[in-house]
Design a protein that fits this description.
alpha/beta; Rossmann fold; eight-stranded mixed beta sheet; 8 strands; globular; 40% helix
Amino acid sequence: MEARTQWVNTSDQQRLYVKAWGDEQKPALVLVHGYPDNQEVWELIIEQLIHDYFIITYDVRGAGQSSIPQRIKDYRLEQLSQDLESVVNAVLPDRAFHLAAHDWGSIQSWESVTEAKFRGRLLSYSTISGPCLDHAALLLREQFKNNKGNVLKLLSKSWYIGVFQLPFLAPAAWHFFNPERWGKIVNELEREQQLPLNHNIQNDGKYGISLYRANFIPRLSQPRQRYAVCPVQAIVLKHDNFVSPDYIAALPQWVEDLSIIEVEANHWAVLSQPEKIAHSIAEFVKSHQPA
């Protein structure tokens, strides 16, 4: 399984490492990875989808082989949405596409999914374990008024977000995780053995923390009303250790065409259950492919 590779320059002169997989005459599907991963996390799923789709993946800024911005503000959601736009304009000029994303890839992709400029071009969105930060903040505010106990439940899985705000300690901690040690943690979480290793985990973990530091406080303190411009499928991982499935409860308010499916899986289902995740993405794409 070979990919064609290229570099794409962003609007602020960063460089993104992009791969294109399969027949470009097929329907286009863009996959956006999460934290602390890079685009290689999708390869088991690509194996399932490559015969039916033209697949685009890329290392988000600060991950994999893409460049590493020096300023925290360069990781803000608005810029990440522009990165996606830069990629699709370079690889899929004047083409509509489907989008699927996991973890932080999902969080950042919501920024595009709720941008008017993507209306009509973005055909569908499959989100896996990554709520829109604005939706999450508004849900937390509502729950704080009506059910403070549920707020603690929602926040209990997100303890690490506070740790990631520490400027020196959090990035330095990733020096203790070599690929094998991190792989053992993921294997234990997923109750699987010999899942693919992230050989760039120390850098991906260290630099990707800026995603949290650039966005959580601004979005939680000043949430916006963000409405989806395309059909959305939420793939809910019922045993996710890091993202509460309860955030999905807010989606009907923000998504006109919403589908929800549940999977008996933990956070890295893209690695441990690639066939099931790929099938869910493919079925949703098929149901929203233009005639």
